[in-house]
Task: structure prediction
Amino acid sequence: MHKTLGHSTGRLIGMLCLGFMSCVVSVSHAAEIIKPAQRIVSLLPSLTETVCALGACNRLVGVDRYSNWPESIAQLPRMGGGIDPNIESIVALKPDLVLMAGSARGVDRLRSLGLTVLTLEPKNYADVQNALGVVAKAIGVPSKDSDRVWRDMNAQVAEISISMPQYAKAQRVYFEVSPVPFGASESSFIGETLQRLGAKNILPQAMGLFPQVSPEFVVRAQPDIIMVGDSNLSDMQARPGWANLLAMRNGRVCTFSPKESDVLVRPGPRMVEAARLMSQCLLDKSASQAKPNS
Amino acid sequence: MSLNKSNHWFFALTMLLLLAIGIGIGISVGSSGLGSLQNAWRDDVAWQIIWQIRLPRTLGAFAAGALLGLAGALAQGLFRNPLADPYLLGSASGATLGVALALAFYGGNQFAPDAFVRVGLTGAAFIGALFAVVLTLLLAKGVQHTMRLLLAGVIVGVVMGAIASLISLMRPDVLQNMQGFLLGSTAFIGWSAFFVMVCVLLPCLCLAWFFGFAMDALSLGESTALSLGVPLRSMRIVLVLLVALATGTAVAQTGLIAFVGLAAPHLVRSTTSVKSASLAILSALMGGVLLLVADILARSVIAPQELPVGVLTAVLGGGYLLWLMYRNQNQGGLR
Result:
Protein backbone atom coordinates (compact mmCIF):
# COMPACT_ATOMS: atom_id res chain seq x y z
CA MET A 1 0.00 0.00 0.00
CA HIS A 2 1.14 3.51 -0.72
CA LYS A 3 0.51 4.73 2.74
CA THR A 4 3.91 3.44 3.75
CA LEU A 5 5.22 6.78 2.60
CA GLY A 6 6.36 8.69 5.65
CA HIS A 7 5.07 11.91 7.02
CA SER A 8 8.28 13.70 6.21
CA THR A 9 8.45 17.03 4.48
CA GLY A 10 9.65 15.19 1.40
CA ARG A 11 6.09 14.14 0.91
CA LEU A 12 5.37 16.80 -1.66
CA ILE A 13 8.28 15.62 -3.76
CA GLY A 14 7.17 12.06 -3.37
CA MET A 15 3.78 12.91 -4.72
CA LEU A 16 4.81 12.95 -8.34
CA CYS A 17 6.68 9.65 -8.17
CA LEU A 18 3.79 8.13 -6.31
CA GLY A 19 1.34 9.22 -8.96
CA PHE A 20 3.46 7.64 -11.62
CA MET A 21 3.96 4.47 -9.63
CA SER A 22 0.27 3.98 -9.14
CA CYS A 23 -0.21 4.03 -12.88
CA VAL A 24 2.85 2.12 -13.98
CA VAL A 25 3.04 -0.56 -11.33
CA SER A 26 -0.11 -2.59 -11.15
CA VAL A 27 -0.56 -3.17 -7.47
CA SER A 28 -0.55 -6.85 -6.66
CA HIS A 29 -3.62 -7.67 -4.69
CA ALA A 30 -2.95 -10.53 -2.38
CA ALA A 31 -5.26 -13.44 -3.08
CA GLU A 32 -4.27 -14.96 0.22
CA ILE A 33 -5.81 -13.21 3.18
CA ILE A 34 -3.39 -13.52 5.98
CA LYS A 35 -5.27 -12.40 9.05
CA PRO A 36 -9.03 -12.53 9.60
CA ALA A 37 -10.78 -9.41 8.40
CA GLN A 38 -12.05 -7.13 11.17
CA ARG A 39 -13.51 -4.29 9.14
CA ILE A 40 -15.69 -5.57 6.33
CA VAL A 41 -17.51 -3.64 3.61
CA SER A 42 -20.09 -5.65 1.67
CA LEU A 43 -21.50 -4.31 -1.58
CA LEU A 44 -23.95 -7.12 -2.35
CA PRO A 45 -27.01 -7.94 -0.21
CA SER A 46 -26.51 -11.70 -0.45
CA LEU A 47 -22.90 -11.34 0.73
CA THR A 48 -23.98 -9.06 3.59
CA GLU A 49 -26.40 -11.78 4.64
CA THR A 50 -23.70 -14.41 4.28
CA VAL A 51 -21.36 -12.48 6.58
CA CYS A 52 -24.14 -12.18 9.16
CA ALA A 53 -25.05 -15.87 8.87
CA LEU A 54 -21.44 -16.63 9.76
CA GLY A 55 -21.88 -14.56 12.92
CA ALA A 56 -19.68 -11.66 11.83
CA CYS A 57 -22.39 -9.05 11.42
CA ASN A 58 -20.67 -6.80 13.96
CA ARG A 59 -17.56 -6.68 11.83
CA LEU A 60 -19.42 -5.02 8.94
CA VAL A 61 -18.56 -1.32 8.78
CA GLY A 62 -20.38 -0.42 5.56
CA VAL A 63 -22.88 -1.95 3.15
CA ASP A 64 -24.45 -1.15 -0.22
CA ARG A 65 -27.74 0.73 -0.41
CA TYR A 66 -29.76 -2.42 -1.14
CA SER A 67 -28.62 -4.49 1.84
CA ASN A 68 -31.52 -4.46 4.30
CA TRP A 69 -31.20 -7.67 6.31
CA PRO A 70 -30.68 -8.37 9.17
CA GLU A 71 -32.07 -5.31 10.90
CA SER A 72 -28.88 -4.77 12.88
CA ILE A 73 -27.21 -3.36 9.77
CA ALA A 74 -29.81 -0.61 9.32
CA GLN A 75 -27.56 2.02 10.88
CA LEU A 76 -24.45 1.19 8.84
CA PRO A 77 -23.22 3.79 6.37
CA ARG A 78 -24.25 3.18 2.74
CA MET A 79 -21.60 2.88 0.06
CA GLY A 80 -23.70 3.21 -3.12
CA GLY A 81 -24.54 0.18 -5.23
CA GLY A 82 -23.08 -2.09 -7.90
CA ILE A 83 -23.30 0.63 -10.55
CA ASP A 84 -21.95 3.43 -8.42
CA PRO A 85 -19.87 2.18 -5.49
CA ASN A 86 -18.65 5.22 -3.58
CA ILE A 87 -14.89 4.77 -3.74
CA GLU A 88 -14.04 7.57 -1.35
CA SER A 89 -16.49 6.49 1.35
CA ILE A 90 -15.24 2.92 1.12
CA VAL A 91 -11.59 3.93 1.47
CA ALA A 92 -12.47 6.30 4.33
CA LEU A 93 -13.88 3.36 6.32
CA LYS A 94 -10.43 1.70 6.24
CA PRO A 95 -11.83 -1.76 5.55
CA ASP A 96 -9.50 -4.75 5.50
CA LEU A 97 -11.93 -6.69 3.30
CA VAL A 98 -14.35 -5.56 0.60
CA LEU A 99 -16.90 -8.08 -0.65
CA MET A 100 -18.58 -7.34 -3.95
CA ALA A 101 -19.98 -8.84 -7.14
CA GLY A 102 -17.43 -9.45 -9.88
CA SER A 103 -19.72 -7.64 -12.31
CA ALA A 104 -19.86 -4.51 -10.14
CA ARG A 105 -17.97 -1.41 -11.20
CA GLY A 106 -14.92 -0.19 -9.37
CA VAL A 107 -13.37 -3.57 -8.48
CA ASP A 108 -10.09 -2.67 -10.17
CA ARG A 109 -10.12 0.85 -8.78
CA LEU A 110 -10.53 -0.37 -5.21
CA ARG A 111 -7.76 -2.92 -5.68
CA SER A 112 -5.43 -0.31 -7.12
CA LEU A 113 -6.03 1.74 -3.98
CA GLY A 114 -4.59 -1.15 -1.99
CA LEU A 115 -7.79 -2.67 -0.63
CA THR A 116 -8.37 -6.40 -0.43
CA VAL A 117 -11.37 -7.11 -2.62
CA LEU A 118 -13.09 -10.49 -2.82
CA THR A 119 -15.47 -10.86 -5.74
CA LEU A 120 -18.27 -13.38 -5.38
CA GLU A 121 -21.50 -13.60 -7.27
CA PRO A 122 -23.48 -16.66 -6.25
CA LYS A 123 -26.04 -17.84 -8.80
CA ASN A 124 -26.78 -21.41 -7.81
CA TYR A 125 -26.57 -23.65 -4.75
CA ALA A 126 -22.97 -24.65 -5.41
CA ASP A 127 -21.99 -20.96 -5.65
CA VAL A 128 -23.73 -20.20 -2.36
CA GLN A 129 -21.87 -23.05 -0.66
CA ASN A 130 -18.61 -21.82 -2.17
CA ALA A 131 -19.30 -18.22 -1.11
CA LEU A 132 -19.94 -19.37 2.46
CA GLY A 133 -16.61 -21.18 2.51
CA VAL A 134 -14.61 -18.37 0.92
CA VAL A 135 -16.11 -15.65 3.12
CA ALA A 136 -15.63 -17.82 6.21
CA LYS A 137 -11.96 -18.26 5.38
CA ALA A 138 -11.48 -14.54 4.78
CA ILE A 139 -13.04 -13.55 8.08
CA GLY A 140 -11.43 -16.31 10.09
CA VAL A 141 -14.49 -18.45 10.78
CA PRO A 142 -13.51 -22.13 11.03
CA SER A 143 -14.60 -24.13 8.01
CA LYS A 144 -16.53 -26.55 10.21
CA ASP A 145 -18.80 -23.66 11.17
CA SER A 146 -19.46 -22.57 7.60
CA ASP A 147 -20.02 -26.23 6.69
CA ARG A 148 -22.56 -26.46 9.48
CA VAL A 149 -24.43 -23.37 8.23
CA TRP A 150 -24.58 -24.97 4.82
CA ARG A 151 -25.67 -28.38 6.14
CA ASP A 152 -28.41 -26.77 8.23
CA MET A 153 -29.69 -24.86 5.21
CA ASN A 154 -29.75 -27.99 3.10
CA ALA A 155 -31.40 -30.01 5.82
CA GLN A 156 -34.15 -27.44 6.29
CA VAL A 157 -34.86 -27.19 2.57
CA ALA A 158 -34.98 -31.00 2.46
CA GLU A 159 -37.39 -31.00 5.39
CA ILE A 160 -39.71 -28.56 3.61
CA SER A 161 -39.45 -30.65 0.48
CA ILE A 162 -40.38 -33.88 2.29
CA SER A 163 -43.40 -32.21 3.87
CA MET A 164 -44.80 -31.34 0.45
CA PRO A 165 -47.91 -33.44 -0.25
CA GLN A 166 -48.16 -35.32 -3.51
CA TYR A 167 -50.82 -33.03 -5.00
CA ALA A 168 -48.50 -30.04 -4.69
CA LYS A 169 -45.75 -31.72 -6.66
CA ALA A 170 -45.06 -31.72 -10.38
CA GLN A 171 -46.65 -28.29 -10.75
CA ARG A 172 -45.28 -26.45 -13.74
CA VAL A 173 -44.05 -23.11 -12.49
CA TYR A 174 -43.03 -19.83 -14.08
CA PHE A 175 -40.98 -17.65 -11.72
CA GLU A 176 -40.58 -14.08 -12.95
CA VAL A 177 -37.58 -12.18 -11.63
CA SER A 178 -38.08 -8.80 -13.33
CA PRO A 179 -40.67 -7.35 -15.68
CA VAL A 180 -38.61 -7.19 -18.90
CA PRO A 181 -39.56 -10.13 -18.47
CA PHE A 182 -36.72 -12.21 -17.11
CA GLY A 183 -37.54 -15.56 -15.56
CA ALA A 184 -35.60 -17.92 -13.31
CA SER A 185 -34.60 -21.11 -15.14
CA GLU A 186 -33.88 -24.57 -13.77
CA SER A 187 -30.17 -23.80 -13.43
CA SER A 188 -30.60 -20.74 -11.18
CA PHE A 189 -30.73 -21.08 -7.40
CA ILE A 190 -34.44 -20.23 -7.54
CA GLY A 191 -34.93 -23.03 -10.07
CA GLU A 192 -32.95 -25.42 -7.89
CA THR A 193 -35.16 -24.66 -4.92
CA LEU A 194 -38.29 -25.23 -7.02
CA GLN A 195 -36.83 -28.50 -8.22
CA ARG A 196 -36.10 -29.62 -4.66
CA LEU A 197 -39.71 -28.83 -3.80
CA GLY A 198 -40.80 -31.16 -6.59
CA ALA A 199 -42.01 -28.45 -8.96
CA LYS A 200 -41.26 -28.33 -12.66
CA ASN A 201 -39.81 -25.19 -14.20
CA ILE A 202 -41.14 -24.12 -17.60
CA LEU A 203 -37.74 -22.56 -18.35
CA PRO A 204 -35.25 -25.34 -19.08
CA GLN A 205 -31.63 -25.29 -18.01
CA ALA A 206 -30.48 -24.69 -21.57
CA MET A 207 -31.94 -21.18 -21.56
CA GLY A 208 -29.33 -19.93 -19.10
CA LEU A 209 -29.72 -18.77 -15.52
CA PHE A 210 -32.17 -15.88 -15.84
CA PRO A 211 -33.26 -15.81 -19.48
CA GLN A 212 -35.38 -13.14 -21.06
CA VAL A 213 -38.60 -14.86 -22.11
CA SER A 214 -40.93 -13.80 -24.86
CA PRO A 215 -44.57 -13.42 -23.78
CA GLU A 216 -45.46 -16.05 -26.38
CA PHE A 217 -43.17 -18.62 -24.80
CA VAL A 218 -45.05 -18.46 -21.52
CA VAL A 219 -48.46 -18.53 -23.22
CA ARG A 220 -47.39 -21.64 -25.09
CA ALA A 221 -45.93 -23.31 -22.01
CA GLN A 222 -49.12 -22.64 -19.96
CA PRO A 223 -47.59 -22.82 -16.48
CA ASP A 224 -49.83 -24.18 -13.70
CA ILE A 225 -48.57 -21.59 -11.25
CA ILE A 226 -46.94 -18.18 -11.69
CA MET A 227 -44.73 -16.62 -9.02
CA VAL A 228 -44.03 -12.92 -9.27
CA GLY A 229 -43.32 -9.81 -7.19
CA ASP A 230 -46.54 -7.86 -6.61
CA SER A 231 -45.22 -4.79 -8.44
CA ASN A 232 -44.94 -6.84 -11.65
CA LEU A 233 -48.47 -8.16 -11.61
CA SER A 234 -50.25 -5.31 -13.38
CA ASP A 235 -47.60 -5.29 -16.07
CA MET A 236 -48.11 -9.00 -16.50
CA GLN A 237 -51.86 -8.73 -17.02
CA ALA A 238 -51.31 -6.18 -19.78
CA ARG A 239 -49.10 -8.50 -21.83
CA PRO A 240 -50.75 -9.79 -24.99
CA GLY A 241 -52.46 -13.12 -24.39
CA TRP A 242 -51.51 -13.31 -20.74
CA ALA A 243 -54.89 -12.35 -19.33
CA ASN A 244 -56.11 -15.63 -20.78
CA LEU A 245 -53.37 -17.76 -19.29
CA LEU A 246 -55.02 -20.55 -17.32
CA ALA A 247 -52.97 -19.70 -14.27
CA MET A 248 -54.08 -16.05 -14.47
CA ARG A 249 -57.74 -16.91 -15.08
CA ASN A 250 -57.84 -19.36 -12.22
CA GLY A 251 -56.01 -17.07 -9.83
CA ARG A 252 -53.02 -19.38 -9.51
CA VAL A 253 -50.60 -16.49 -9.32
CA CYS A 254 -48.57 -15.95 -6.17
CA THR A 255 -47.54 -12.37 -5.61
CA PHE A 256 -44.80 -11.51 -3.18
CA SER A 257 -44.32 -8.31 -1.23
CA PRO A 258 -41.04 -6.39 -1.81
CA LYS A 259 -39.68 -7.85 1.43
CA GLU A 260 -40.55 -11.39 0.36
CA SER A 261 -39.13 -10.72 -3.09
CA ASP A 262 -35.83 -9.72 -1.48
CA VAL A 263 -35.77 -13.08 0.28
CA LEU A 264 -36.60 -14.95 -2.92
CA VAL A 265 -34.06 -13.36 -5.25
CA ARG A 266 -31.01 -13.32 -2.96
CA PRO A 267 -28.77 -16.35 -3.19
CA GLY A 268 -27.67 -16.54 0.41
CA PRO A 269 -28.49 -17.94 3.82
CA ARG A 270 -32.16 -16.95 3.54
CA MET A 271 -32.75 -19.48 0.77
CA VAL A 272 -34.47 -21.62 3.41
CA GLU A 273 -37.00 -18.86 3.99
CA ALA A 274 -37.36 -18.55 0.22
CA ALA A 275 -38.06 -22.28 -0.03
CA ARG A 276 -40.73 -21.85 2.64
CA LEU A 277 -42.38 -19.01 0.70
CA MET A 278 -42.34 -21.02 -2.51
CA SER A 279 -43.66 -24.16 -0.84
CA GLN A 280 -46.49 -22.16 0.73
CA CYS A 281 -47.37 -20.83 -2.70
CA LEU A 282 -47.28 -24.31 -4.22
CA LEU A 283 -49.50 -25.64 -1.41
CA ASP A 284 -52.05 -22.82 -1.63
CA LYS A 285 -52.34 -22.76 -5.38
CA SER A 286 -52.26 -26.52 -5.89
CA ALA A 287 -55.05 -26.89 -3.34
CA SER A 288 -57.22 -24.42 -5.26
CA GLN A 289 -56.46 -26.37 -8.38
CA ALA A 290 -57.21 -29.73 -6.78
CA LYS A 291 -60.62 -28.66 -5.49
CA PRO A 292 -62.52 -28.11 -8.76
CA ASN A 293 -61.31 -31.51 -9.97
CA SER A 294 -62.41 -33.34 -6.87
CA MET B 1 -15.57 38.12 -37.31
CA SER B 2 -14.07 40.68 -35.03
CA LEU B 3 -10.96 39.54 -33.30
CA ASN B 4 -10.17 40.80 -29.89
CA LYS B 5 -6.95 39.28 -28.68
CA SER B 6 -7.03 40.59 -25.13
CA ASN B 7 -10.52 39.21 -24.83
CA HIS B 8 -9.19 35.69 -25.52
CA TRP B 9 -6.52 36.01 -22.93
CA PHE B 10 -9.01 37.28 -20.43
CA PHE B 11 -11.25 34.32 -21.16
CA ALA B 12 -8.40 31.82 -20.95
CA LEU B 13 -7.14 33.32 -17.70
CA THR B 14 -10.63 33.22 -16.22
CA MET B 15 -10.86 29.55 -17.11
CA LEU B 16 -7.46 28.81 -15.61
CA LEU B 17 -8.44 30.67 -12.47
CA LEU B 18 -11.66 28.65 -12.28
CA LEU B 19 -9.58 25.51 -12.79
CA ALA B 20 -7.34 26.45 -9.88
CA ILE B 21 -10.33 27.20 -7.65
CA GLY B 22 -11.96 23.98 -8.87
CA ILE B 23 -8.92 21.93 -7.91
CA GLY B 24 -8.94 23.56 -4.50
CA ILE B 25 -12.59 22.74 -3.95
CA GLY B 26 -12.19 19.37 -5.65
CA ILE B 27 -9.68 18.12 -3.11
CA SER B 28 -11.73 19.48 -0.22
CA VAL B 29 -15.19 18.06 -0.90
CA GLY B 30 -16.27 14.46 -1.11
CA SER B 31 -18.22 11.81 0.70
CA SER B 32 -15.94 11.86 3.71
CA GLY B 33 -16.20 15.64 4.04
CA LEU B 34 -13.66 18.32 4.84
CA GLY B 35 -12.18 16.17 7.61
CA SER B 36 -9.99 14.32 5.13
CA LEU B 37 -8.27 17.55 4.14
CA GLN B 38 -7.66 18.61 7.73
CA ASN B 39 -6.24 15.24 8.69
CA ALA B 40 -4.30 14.62 5.50
CA TRP B 41 -0.95 15.23 7.20
CA ARG B 42 -1.65 12.99 10.16
CA ASP B 43 -3.82 10.20 8.83
CA ASP B 44 -2.63 7.91 6.04
CA VAL B 45 -6.11 7.07 4.85
CA ALA B 46 -7.14 10.74 4.72
CA TRP B 47 -3.97 11.39 2.75
CA GLN B 48 -4.81 8.54 0.40
CA ILE B 49 -8.28 9.98 -0.12
CA ILE B 50 -6.89 13.39 -1.03
CA TRP B 51 -3.96 12.25 -3.07
CA GLN B 52 -5.18 9.09 -4.76
CA ILE B 53 -8.91 9.66 -5.04
CA ARG B 54 -9.90 13.33 -5.02
CA LEU B 55 -6.95 14.87 -6.85
CA PRO B 56 -6.82 12.45 -9.82
CA ARG B 57 -10.58 12.56 -9.99
CA THR B 58 -10.66 16.36 -10.05
CA LEU B 59 -7.88 16.64 -12.62
CA GLY B 60 -9.36 13.73 -14.55
CA ALA B 61 -12.76 15.42 -14.72
CA PHE B 62 -11.05 18.48 -16.16
CA ALA B 63 -9.07 16.43 -18.68
CA ALA B 64 -12.12 14.44 -19.80
CA GLY B 65 -14.17 17.63 -20.13
CA ALA B 66 -11.34 19.25 -22.06
CA LEU B 67 -11.18 16.31 -24.47
CA LEU B 68 -14.93 16.49 -25.05
CA GLY B 69 -14.90 20.29 -25.40
CA LEU B 70 -12.06 20.09 -27.91
CA ALA B 71 -13.77 17.30 -29.83
CA GLY B 72 -16.97 19.36 -29.86
CA ALA B 73 -15.25 22.43 -31.26
CA LEU B 74 -13.49 20.34 -33.92
CA ALA B 75 -16.69 18.50 -34.88
CA GLN B 76 -18.59 21.77 -35.23
CA GLY B 77 -15.81 23.23 -37.38
CA LEU B 78 -15.53 20.09 -39.45
CA PHE B 79 -19.24 19.74 -40.14
CA ARG B 80 -19.78 23.48 -40.26
CA ASN B 81 -22.77 22.87 -38.08
CA PRO B 82 -23.19 24.38 -34.61
CA LEU B 83 -25.29 21.40 -33.54
CA ALA B 84 -22.54 18.89 -34.29
CA ASP B 85 -21.61 16.77 -31.29
CA PRO B 86 -18.41 14.79 -30.78
CA TYR B 87 -20.54 11.65 -30.49
CA LEU B 88 -21.80 12.19 -34.05
CA LEU B 89 -19.36 9.91 -35.82
CA GLY B 90 -20.76 6.90 -33.97
CA SER B 91 -17.94 6.91 -31.44
CA ALA B 92 -20.28 6.88 -28.44
CA SER B 93 -22.25 3.88 -29.64
CA GLY B 94 -19.03 2.21 -30.74
CA ALA B 95 -17.60 2.64 -27.26
CA THR B 96 -20.84 1.35 -25.74
CA LEU B 97 -20.70 -1.72 -27.96
CA GLY B 98 -17.07 -2.29 -27.05
CA VAL B 99 -17.95 -2.22 -23.37
CA ALA B 100 -20.97 -4.49 -23.86
CA LEU B 101 -18.84 -7.04 -25.73
CA ALA B 102 -16.08 -6.92 -23.15
CA LEU B 103 -18.58 -7.40 -20.34
CA ALA B 104 -20.38 -10.21 -22.11
CA PHE B 105 -17.16 -12.12 -22.73
CA TYR B 106 -15.29 -11.26 -19.58
CA GLY B 107 -18.23 -11.07 -17.21
CA GLY B 108 -19.31 -14.62 -17.91
CA ASN B 109 -15.89 -16.15 -17.81
CA GLN B 110 -13.83 -15.87 -14.65
CA PHE B 111 -10.84 -17.36 -16.42
CA ALA B 112 -10.69 -15.01 -19.36
CA PRO B 113 -7.22 -14.76 -20.87
CA ASP B 114 -5.05 -12.38 -18.90
CA ALA B 115 -4.38 -10.01 -21.77
CA PHE B 116 -8.07 -9.46 -22.19
CA VAL B 117 -8.49 -8.53 -18.56
CA ARG B 118 -5.64 -6.09 -18.87
CA VAL B 119 -7.10 -4.36 -21.90
CA GLY B 120 -10.18 -4.07 -19.75
CA LEU B 121 -13.26 -2.00 -20.24
CA THR B 122 -11.46 1.24 -20.99
CA GLY B 123 -9.51 -0.37 -23.80
CA ALA B 124 -12.66 -1.98 -25.13
CA ALA B 125 -14.48 1.36 -25.16
CA PHE B 126 -11.60 3.03 -26.93
CA ILE B 127 -11.27 0.30 -29.56
CA GLY B 128 -15.04 0.32 -30.06
CA ALA B 129 -15.07 4.09 -30.58
CA LEU B 130 -12.24 3.96 -33.12
CA PHE B 131 -13.85 1.02 -34.91
CA ALA B 132 -17.13 2.91 -35.20
CA VAL B 133 -15.43 5.96 -36.65
CA VAL B 134 -13.48 3.90 -39.18
CA LEU B 135 -16.71 2.15 -40.16
CA THR B 136 -18.44 5.52 -40.55
CA LEU B 137 -15.62 6.71 -42.78
CA LEU B 138 -15.82 3.57 -44.90
CA LEU B 139 -19.57 3.90 -45.29
CA ALA B 140 -19.27 7.57 -46.17
CA LYS B 141 -16.53 6.65 -48.66
CA GLY B 142 -14.14 9.12 -47.16
CA VAL B 143 -14.49 12.51 -45.62
CA GLN B 144 -15.27 14.65 -48.67
CA HIS B 145 -19.00 14.82 -48.23
CA THR B 146 -20.08 16.23 -44.92
CA MET B 147 -23.71 15.20 -45.33
CA ARG B 148 -22.79 11.62 -46.17
CA LEU B 149 -20.44 11.55 -43.22
CA LEU B 150 -23.12 12.80 -40.84
CA LEU B 151 -25.65 10.30 -42.15
CA ALA B 152 -23.19 7.40 -41.95
CA GLY B 153 -22.35 8.45 -38.41
CA VAL B 154 -25.99 8.37 -37.41
CA ILE B 155 -26.51 4.96 -39.04
CA VAL B 156 -23.45 3.43 -37.42
CA GLY B 157 -24.53 4.94 -34.11
CA VAL B 158 -28.03 3.46 -34.30
CA VAL B 159 -26.90 0.01 -35.42
CA MET B 160 -24.11 -0.29 -32.87
CA GLY B 161 -26.36 1.02 -30.13
CA ALA B 162 -28.92 -1.61 -31.06
CA ILE B 163 -26.36 -4.41 -30.97
CA ALA B 164 -25.15 -3.20 -27.58
CA SER B 165 -28.72 -3.22 -26.27
CA LEU B 166 -29.22 -6.70 -27.67
CA ILE B 167 -26.12 -7.97 -25.90
CA SER B 168 -27.19 -6.51 -22.58
CA LEU B 169 -30.64 -8.03 -23.02
CA MET B 170 -29.22 -11.46 -23.73
CA ARG B 171 -26.87 -11.18 -20.78
CA PRO B 172 -28.81 -9.73 -17.85
CA ASP B 173 -25.71 -9.87 -15.66
CA VAL B 174 -24.18 -7.25 -17.94
CA LEU B 175 -27.14 -4.87 -17.70
CA GLN B 176 -26.04 -3.22 -14.49
CA ASN B 177 -22.58 -2.42 -15.72
CA MET B 178 -23.88 -1.14 -19.04
CA GLN B 179 -26.24 1.15 -17.23
CA GLY B 180 -23.35 2.52 -15.22
CA PHE B 181 -21.39 3.16 -18.38
CA LEU B 182 -24.29 4.95 -20.04
CA LEU B 183 -24.72 7.22 -17.03
CA GLY B 184 -21.14 8.40 -17.14
CA SER B 185 -19.07 8.87 -14.02
CA THR B 186 -15.84 10.48 -12.97
CA ALA B 187 -15.73 8.44 -9.77
CA PHE B 188 -13.34 5.78 -11.05
CA ILE B 189 -10.64 8.05 -12.48
CA GLY B 190 -7.25 7.28 -10.97
CA TRP B 191 -3.83 8.63 -11.85
CA SER B 192 -3.37 6.21 -14.72
CA ALA B 193 -6.65 7.25 -16.34
CA PHE B 194 -5.69 10.89 -15.89
CA PHE B 195 -2.28 10.43 -17.49
CA VAL B 196 -3.80 8.60 -20.44
CA MET B 197 -6.16 11.51 -21.02
CA VAL B 198 -3.45 14.14 -20.70
CA CYS B 199 -1.18 12.22 -23.07
CA VAL B 200 -3.95 12.35 -25.67
CA LEU B 201 -5.14 15.87 -24.87
CA LEU B 202 -1.86 17.72 -25.33
CA PRO B 203 -1.01 16.51 -28.87
CA CYS B 204 -4.66 16.93 -29.86
CA LEU B 205 -4.57 20.55 -28.72
CA CYS B 206 -1.37 21.18 -30.68
CA LEU B 207 -2.83 19.66 -33.84
CA ALA B 208 -6.08 21.58 -33.42
CA TRP B 209 -4.10 24.81 -33.11
CA PHE B 210 -2.10 23.90 -36.17
CA PHE B 211 -5.21 23.16 -38.27
CA GLY B 212 -7.12 26.19 -37.04
CA PHE B 213 -6.37 28.23 -40.16
CA ALA B 214 -7.82 25.48 -42.35
CA MET B 215 -11.04 25.41 -40.34
CA ASP B 216 -11.33 29.17 -40.69
CA ALA B 217 -11.00 28.78 -44.43
CA LEU B 218 -13.55 25.97 -44.39
CA SER B 219 -16.02 28.16 -42.52
CA LEU B 220 -16.12 30.37 -45.63
CA GLY B 221 -17.29 27.42 -47.74
CA GLU B 222 -15.58 24.48 -49.42
CA SER B 223 -14.87 26.15 -52.74
CA THR B 224 -13.39 29.20 -51.05
CA ALA B 225 -11.26 26.97 -48.87
CA LEU B 226 -10.02 25.06 -51.90
CA SER B 227 -9.27 28.26 -53.77
CA LEU B 228 -7.27 29.42 -50.76
CA GLY B 229 -5.10 26.35 -51.18
CA VAL B 230 -6.28 24.46 -48.12
CA PRO B 231 -5.63 20.72 -48.42
CA LEU B 232 -9.23 19.86 -47.57
CA ARG B 233 -8.95 16.08 -47.81
CA SER B 234 -6.00 15.55 -45.54
CA MET B 235 -7.30 18.18 -43.17
CA ARG B 236 -10.62 16.39 -42.85
CA ILE B 237 -8.95 13.06 -42.19
CA VAL B 238 -6.84 14.56 -39.43
CA LEU B 239 -9.82 16.31 -37.86
CA VAL B 240 -12.00 13.20 -37.96
CA LEU B 241 -9.23 11.17 -36.31
CA LEU B 242 -8.74 13.88 -33.71
CA VAL B 243 -12.45 13.90 -32.87
CA ALA B 244 -12.47 10.11 -32.60
CA LEU B 245 -9.33 9.96 -30.51
CA ALA B 246 -10.39 12.69 -28.11
CA THR B 247 -13.93 11.36 -27.72
CA GLY B 248 -12.85 7.72 -27.48
CA THR B 249 -10.29 8.49 -24.81
CA ALA B 250 -12.71 10.51 -22.70
CA VAL B 251 -15.56 8.02 -23.07
CA ALA B 252 -13.28 5.11 -22.29
CA GLN B 253 -12.34 6.63 -18.93
CA THR B 254 -15.66 8.11 -17.87
CA GLY B 255 -18.51 6.53 -19.81
CA LEU B 256 -20.97 8.64 -21.75
CA ILE B 257 -21.07 12.22 -20.55
CA ALA B 258 -23.66 14.26 -22.33
CA PHE B 259 -23.67 17.83 -23.55
CA VAL B 260 -20.16 18.94 -22.56
CA GLY B 261 -18.92 18.57 -26.12
CA LEU B 262 -21.92 20.38 -27.51
CA ALA B 263 -22.19 23.11 -24.92
CA ALA B 264 -18.53 24.10 -24.45
CA PRO B 265 -17.96 25.65 -27.91
CA HIS B 266 -21.29 27.47 -27.68
CA LEU B 267 -20.42 28.91 -24.33
CA VAL B 268 -17.11 30.13 -25.71
CA ARG B 269 -18.75 31.67 -28.76
CA SER B 270 -21.39 33.37 -26.67
CA THR B 271 -18.79 35.24 -24.62
CA THR B 272 -16.09 35.96 -27.15
CA SER B 273 -15.72 35.80 -30.91
CA VAL B 274 -12.70 33.82 -31.92
CA LYS B 275 -10.86 32.14 -34.74
CA SER B 276 -11.09 28.35 -34.97
CA ALA B 277 -7.71 27.71 -33.42
CA SER B 278 -8.48 29.74 -30.33
CA LEU B 279 -12.01 28.36 -30.26
CA ALA B 280 -10.62 24.82 -30.03
CA ILE B 281 -8.27 25.69 -27.18
CA LEU B 282 -10.82 27.78 -25.29
CA SER B 283 -13.52 25.12 -25.78
CA ALA B 284 -11.17 22.59 -24.26
CA LEU B 285 -10.66 24.84 -21.25
CA MET B 286 -14.38 25.54 -21.03
CA GLY B 287 -15.31 21.84 -21.33
CA GLY B 288 -12.80 20.98 -18.65
CA VAL B 289 -14.13 23.59 -16.25
CA LEU B 290 -17.72 22.54 -17.00
CA LEU B 291 -17.10 18.90 -16.17
CA LEU B 292 -14.99 19.82 -13.16
CA VAL B 293 -17.81 21.95 -11.74
CA ALA B 294 -20.35 19.23 -12.53
CA ASP B 295 -18.13 16.66 -10.80
CA ILE B 296 -17.81 18.82 -7.69
CA LEU B 297 -21.58 19.25 -7.61
CA ALA B 298 -22.11 15.54 -8.21
CA ARG B 299 -20.19 14.56 -5.13
CA SER B 300 -21.32 17.34 -2.83
CA VAL B 301 -25.01 17.93 -3.52
CA ILE B 302 -26.28 14.87 -1.69
CA ALA B 303 -23.09 13.93 0.18
CA PRO B 304 -22.21 11.38 1.49
CA GLN B 305 -24.10 9.89 -1.47
CA GLU B 306 -23.10 10.79 -5.00
CA LEU B 307 -24.96 11.67 -8.18
CA PRO B 308 -23.80 10.30 -11.53
CA VAL B 309 -22.02 13.22 -13.16
CA GLY B 310 -23.45 12.36 -16.59
CA VAL B 311 -26.95 13.09 -15.33
CA LEU B 312 -25.82 16.44 -13.95
CA THR B 313 -24.09 17.56 -17.15
CA ALA B 314 -27.16 16.60 -19.14
CA VAL B 315 -29.45 18.65 -16.90
CA LEU B 316 -27.13 21.64 -16.45
CA GLY B 317 -25.68 21.69 -19.96
CA GLY B 318 -29.06 21.12 -21.56
CA GLY B 319 -30.70 23.80 -19.47
CA TYR B 320 -27.99 26.33 -20.15
CA LEU B 321 -28.02 25.62 -23.87
CA LEU B 322 -31.77 26.07 -23.96
CA TRP B 323 -31.46 29.38 -22.15
CA LEU B 324 -28.75 30.47 -24.56
CA MET B 325 -30.94 29.53 -27.49
CA TYR B 326 -33.92 31.55 -26.28
CA ARG B 327 -31.77 34.50 -25.25
CA ASN B 328 -30.17 34.62 -28.66
CA GLN B 329 -33.36 34.08 -30.58
CA ASN B 330 -33.81 37.80 -31.08
CA GLN B 331 -30.27 37.95 -32.40
CA GLY B 332 -30.90 35.23 -34.97
CA GLY B 333 -30.80 32.00 -32.97
CA LEU B 334 -27.76 30.13 -31.72
CA ARG B 335 -24.55 31.58 -32.90
Summary: Chain A has a mean pLDDT of 85. The longest helix of chain A spans residues 271-293.
